[in-house]
Every structure is written in structure tokens, then in C-alpha cells.
């Protein structure tokens, strides 16, 4: 089962974590029991979001935090409901505003390129992932493309949205705190209808888009 916890934060802590979302990740994870593995956040289903205006930290997880006092004063806890096809919802999400353009490397050459590094003969074996990358780098989605891009994102996760209901904020910088690093993001509000419940359930439980470690991608829903 997946639960959501809402905590009232002090304004200084809120501002600190928003100014450095890498620190925010460490802070949220410190409230949970340590587990072994390469991806403890994903393994425990942990997602989080900070509402700047209300100073509310929302944390979603498959297991309760071991040290909830670190997160603030608990205001509410509820189980994430399993959606059904046909459900009408209002959806809000802080979403990484990035896309990956199609690769310019011909498909026939991609496996060969992935299996080698510069200066080595073709066919030299390497462990998976140690060759040269052929994928394009992520880029910020241009403003004029965002409505169509968002419709595609929601469709991929089992939702139908009417583009005219999309409300999209100006571009934000989700600050990671080090050397000006960050993720371009937009706050999105829309009305949606669940078309494929399994895909949407997966999105609810695991988040959408890039930056889920840093407080992005948590779908906040309200039944209509």
C-alpha cells in the first residue's frame, strides 16, 4: 500500500530545502530506515513535494517514515486510492520541462557505438553502459510546444486531457544547490479523465518525469 503524509514545515526549513533540492532529498531520506541497494528512494516508493505558499511538505512512500518528527508536524495521512477508468480528476504536478530529441546516430550503428570507447577497435568488449553514448542530451521544451508535449506526457500515463484546460506556469529553476545546477520545471494544473487505469496507477505510485529524487513528479489529484 502507498500512503501520503502531509507535514507543516517551518519557513526557514522550507526555504532551505527549496534552495537546495539535493539537500531536500537527503533530508527526506533521513526520516526513513536505511535499506541496502542502489536505489533506496525508488525501492521504498518515496516521492515528495513542497508547497511554498502553505509550507506543506507532502511525502509519499510504501512504508511509514521511521523518524517522522524530522519532516515537520503531521497534518494528514491517507492511502493513495487506486483509480478506475472513467474517473475525472484535477491534477497538479511540478514537472521537469525537458525532452530528449531523437538521436542523430543511425540505428544500425548504435549498438556498435555503445560497445566501444574513443581510440579502441570496433568489437572491443565492454561491460554494459561503458561505451560511448549515442543518445541526445535533454533540452528544455520550448514554450510554444509545451501544451502538445504535456498532452503526450499525460497520454503516456493513461490520462486524457483537453489542452484548453491546461494551466502551465512560467519556467522555474529547481535548484540543486551546487554550482548553479538545476532542473527546468513547470507547475501544471489540468482536468483529466483516466483512460487506462494501470498506467495511471503506476504514475501515481512512482511519479512522472525527471527529477523525482529532487521533489518533482509527484501527481497531486482531486476527484471532480
Distance between the termini: 24 Å
Topology pattern, helix = H, strand = E:
EHHHEEEEEHEHEEEEHE
Low-pLDDT sequence parts: none
CATH architecture of the largest domain: 2-Layer Sandwich
Quote the average pLDDT.
Answer: 90
Give the total of beta strands: 12
Strand content: 25-35%
What's the tally of helices?
6
- Percent helix among the residues? 10-25%
Could you tell me the CATH topology label of the largest domain: Alpha-Beta Plaits
How much is the radius of gyration in Å? 20 Å
Number of separate domains: 2
Which superfamily, in CATH terms, is the homologous superfamily of the largest domain?
Crispr-associated protein, domain 2
Just give the CATH class of the largest domain. Alpha Beta
Q: How would you characterize the largest beta sheet?
A: 6 strands, antiparallel
- Computed structural class: alpha+beta
The rough form would be described as globular
Structural features, described:
Pfam families: CRISPR_assoc. InterPro entries: CRISPR-assoc_prot_Cse3. By secondary structure, this protein is an alpha+beta fold. The chain folds into 2 domains: 80 residues, Alpha-Beta Plaits; 108 residues, Crispr-associated protein, domain 2 (Alpha-Beta Plaits, 2-Layer Sandwich), CATH 3.30.70.1210. It is built from 6 helices and 12 strands. Strands 5, 8, 9, 10, 11 and 12 form a 6-stranded antiparallel β-sheet that branches. The two termini are 24 Å apart. 27% of the residues are buried.
Amino acid at each position: 500500500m502507498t500512503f501520503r503524509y502531509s507535514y507543516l514545515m517551518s519557513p526557514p526549513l522550507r526555504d532551505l530545502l527549496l534552495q537546495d533540492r539535493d539537500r531536500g532529498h537527503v533530508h527526506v531520506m533521513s526520516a526513513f530506515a536505511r535499506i541496502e541497494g542502489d536505489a533506496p528512494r525508488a525501492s521504498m516508493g518515496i516521492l515528495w513535494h513542497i508547497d511554498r505558499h502553505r509550507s506543506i511538505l507532502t511525502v509519499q512512500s510504501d512504508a511509514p517514515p521511521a523518524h517522522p518528527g524530522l519532516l515537520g508536524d503531521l497534518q494528514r495521512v491517507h492511502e493513495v486510492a487506486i483509480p478506475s477508468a472513467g474517473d475525472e480528476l484535477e491534477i497538479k504536478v511540478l514537472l521537469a520541462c525537458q525532452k530528449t530529441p531523437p538521436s542523430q546516430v543511425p540505428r544500425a550503428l548504435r549498438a556498435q557505438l555503445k560497445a566501444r570507447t574513443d581510440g579502441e577497435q570496433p568489437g572491443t568488449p565492454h561491460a554494459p553502459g561503458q561505451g560511448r553514448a549515442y543518445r541526445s542530451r535533454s533540452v528544455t521544451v520550448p514554450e510554444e510546444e509545451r501544451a502538445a508535449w504535456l498532452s503526450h506526457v499525460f497520454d503516456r500515463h493513461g490520462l486524457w486531457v483537453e489542452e484548453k484546460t491546461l494551466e502551465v506556469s512560467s519556467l522555474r529553476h529547481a535548484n540543486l544547490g551546487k554550482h548553479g545546477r538545476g532542473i527546468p520545471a513547470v507547475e501544471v494544473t489540468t482536468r483529466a479523465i483516466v483512460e487506462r487505469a494501470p498506467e495511471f496507477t503506476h504514475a501515481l505510485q512512482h511519479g512522472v518525469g525527471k527529477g523525482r529524487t529532487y521533489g518533482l513528479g509527484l501527481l497531486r489529484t482531486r476527484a471532480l
